[in-house]
Amino acid sequence: MAATGHGDEPIIEARGLGKRYDIVRDPRKSDWIINDVVRTVGDVARLLVPWRRRPRAERQVEALWALRDVTFDVARGEVLGLVGHNGAGKTTLLRVLSRITDPTEGRAVVRGRLQSLLEVGIGFHQELTGRENVYLKAAIHGLPKQAVARVLDAIVAFAEVEQFIDTPMKRYSAGMRSRLGLAIGMFLEHEVLVVDEALAVGDARFRARAMARIREAAREHGTTTLFVSHDLGQIRELCPRSLLMERGRVIADGPTPEVLDRYLEPDAGDDLGATRTLRPGEKTHFRRVRLMSPAGVASTRFRVGDPLRVEMGVVGVAGMTDLEARVDVETLNGQRLFRFRSAMVGLDLGASASSALTLGATIAHLPLTPGQYWVGVELGRGRGTIERVERALKLEVSPADPYGHGEAFAPHDGAVWVEGAWSVEAGEADEAPAP
Amino acid sequence: MRGGGASVIVARMERIIEPGASQRDYWRELWQRRGLITHMAWSDIVVRYKQTYLGLAWALFQPVVSVIVFTLVFSRLARLPSVGGAPYPLMVFGAVLPWQLFATGLTSVANSLIYHRDLVTGIYFPRLVLPLKALAVSLHNTLISLGLLLVALVAYGYLPDWRVVTLPLFLLLACAAAMALGLWIAILNVRYRDFQYLVPYFLQVAMYISPVGFSTDIVPWKWRFLYSLNPMVGAIDGARWALFHGAAYVHPLSLPISVAVTLLLLAGGVRYFRRSEGAFADRI
Predict the structure, then answer these.
(1) How many angstroms away from the CA of B59 is the closest CA of chain A?
(2) CB neighbours (10 Å) of residue A70?
(3) Counting CB atoms within 10 angstroms of each CB, which of A354, A357, B33, B144 has the fewest?
(4) Do B1 and A110 touch (CB under 8 A)?
(5) Which residues of A touch B32 (CB under 8 A)?
């Protein structure tokens, strides 16, 4: 099916794509509406009277490149992963390829119909039925009625909305709406599918079916997919090849395992977000909180099973007895997952005579499932609290394979990672030992 | 799978993405997507009738109330004359028709982009589809009013002559004026939502300085030229001319000036729209 006569040419060719946003430096002046109106009228006057073109007065603007020098090829039938931290430019790239926004420089060629699933629920009319909405959405995507008729049954079945297809959309649950949106995108004819976190909708079973469908479309119809997800398990499962983006640039392009290794490796050099400095007016005792990687660099990014060191700079504690320091790790919702106290390991801080101390709490193997967490610190005496820095730093844990057997621990494996061993012996353990 | 089989047919499609690429083949692409304009407009109209109990009656309500109020105020109280012996309510109706088209058209065109913010930021299609769709929905209202006007003409026993065939041209002028002003406001609305609040006030004032409730004849001669700069003067006088046996006096400069002002605004609006289109998704 992929044999379309020019299978050798890449279906997507991006060459030096760049997207610049201009950020006005002095908002008080430039956001005055009258300036904009004057400028607009001036622009139009220049358009209508082209020979009076004059350079526009210089504005104080700062250029922010959301995308820069992005060059890559995608072959027909490939499922390409796109990874990178938030703000790395993944979504901007997909928006440029989907023609929602123009690039500032560079060029891309897309050889085929591109279907983008950037936001799945949009374009629906709440008062229309599911069926009417499928046709409306198809029209928005530029497909004729006949093209919908062919795939309507498949869409309805995939979205599991058979009983509701003639019910107004406003009666749909949020899940039904996004399932239908996703199904429309996946089944309307296309050659390139662009998926941005769209599989974050629906339950695990639906996600699995959607992923299976993407794989099947690639294998059987030569459909090309660009896939963005923060779930690295999905990327690993679906995409043989991935691009890693950072600050608008592609910094790695190759086999997914290698690209993900690069993505997950802690930054060389200090991560600015990994240190929290506190002014004397803010806190009496705490001066600094920092997350350290095993290599001794400040970092907020760790992998499951990595060692984590929380370092605290503390002053004014000389002569305090029964003093203990505490490290708390919480979910973003504020549920405490564990507390690690200095007294647990028998350390008595009061024994130190110095007024300024550096305390270090080392967690040998992070037992957390991939995700984001808050790290807070506290000084206390007995059961009481002397000073607390709540949510001092944000910790990001990514999937990893601590045992090194090619099986990564991912969110679907559960909330905590455990360290342990498996054994296998012949015979049932319950059996009474042979006499 | 069925979807895959069909994809071979469109496989030859090749799309170049580069700065300014969306502006090439713009009109051809808009023409290819004309089905989207009618589909979206049709959906809006269907929904309106699904949602409201009285449906069609609401489309008739507004012009009827306007005609009654204007007739009472301008004819009974102010004792203003009608044109060419046409009954006053009919004369008002002849103006309400293009005015309503202009007012609802302008409002919905002006709000078309911000109303479909999710589409602008989420899916590509030529953005001019949205204001055109808004205009098409307003046109539907006018068609209903037109039906009512025919009934009223018959009821009053005042049938128009051959000139009535020119009526669509004057309605077209009202459409163009709505689009011309509406496009400018739509673009400005993307950055400054203030304009959506300005439109109702603007329309209120504009209605009183346009000859909706009265005849242009009562405007003193020395002001007639200035008055003609308002594009709606040409559209309304023209509509009355078409409906009432040419009785309404159309100032010889009124029509050319109205058309010229409208076309100038429209051309500027479309150019400005196309120039800003690429940045709508980033700014809205």
Answers:
(1) 19
(2) 24
(3) A354
(4) no
(5) 142
Token digits for B224?
């007639």
Q: State the residue for tokens 């090309």.
A: A224
Q: Where are the alpha helices (DSSP H) in chain B?
A: 2-7, 26-32, 34-51, 56-70, 88-115, 117-122, 129-156, 167-191, 194-209, 221-228, 231-243, 254-283
The Cα–Cα gap between A383 and A368 comes to 26
Nearest residue in B to A92, CA atom:
B282
B21 touches chain A (CB under 8 A): yes
Which of A117, A187, A188 is CA-nearest to residue A158? A187
Query: What length does chain A have?
Result: 435
Q: Side chain identity at B218, as an amino acid letter? A: I
User: pLDDT of A370-383, one tens digit each?
Assistant: 888 999 999 998 88
Query: Among B4, B15, B18, whose Cβ lies nearest the Cβ of A221?
Result: B4
Q: Do A127 and B47 touch (CB under 8 A)?
A: yes
Nearest Cα of chain B lies from the Cα of A378 at a distance, in angstroms, of 43
Query: Which residues on chain B are in Cβ contact (under 8 Å) with A156?
Result: none
B185 Cβ contact list (under 8 Å, min separation 6): B106, B109, B110, B195, B196, B198, B199
Q: Which of B51, B130, B82 is nearest to B245 (CA)?
A: B82
Return d(Cα A24, Cα A264) in angstroms, integer.
34
Calpha distance B102→B239 (Å, rounded): 13
List the 87-126 stretch of B: residues with Cβ below 8 A of A.
Answer: 118-119, 121-125
Q: Mean pLDDT lowest for which of A278-287, A356-365, A377-386?
A: A278-287
Interface confidence: ipTM more than 0.90: no
Domains and their CATH numbers in chain A? 12-264 (3.40.50.300), 272-413 (2.70.50.60)
Global pTM value: 0.70
Mean pLDDT in residue range A348-353: 71
Q: Which of A95, A103, A116 lies at the smallest CB-CB distance from B19?
A: A103
